[in-house]
Design brief:
single chain, 135 residues, mainly alpha, 3-stranded mixed sheet, 56% helix, globular
Length: 135
Amino acid sequence: MEIDYQLRPKRFLWRLVPGSNTTAQAIYPNIYLPKSVYENLTSSSPKTEYLAVLEHEKVHIKSQKRLGLIKSFFMYLFNSNFRFEEELAAYKVQIKILKQNKQKFHLNKIAKHLSGPMYLWSTSYKNALERLQNI
């Protein structure tokens, strides 16, 4: 199933969102990217690491389309288990791409993000690491 989405460079208002200078965000049908990532992905030879990030965000776009943007937003914001499972599914795709292309990835770093403020403490570090190791 092909999904419709648009890549967008982040503009001024994104600076007001903590941590958004270095991360991508999906808000159906747009994927918002830091300027350098956007420029790389729209170039003739994008980096594998950014292609993997794009696939991560496309998982979110697909979920938002299926559930509806408002329901998806509220579930993501207020249901930590939903948020964790959404991110785990997205990281699974991202890690697969990195692994296939012999790129480095650090499960402990991802687990720290999943269990920290970036993902609103969606789970414990131990649980995040165990689940990532089972991917």
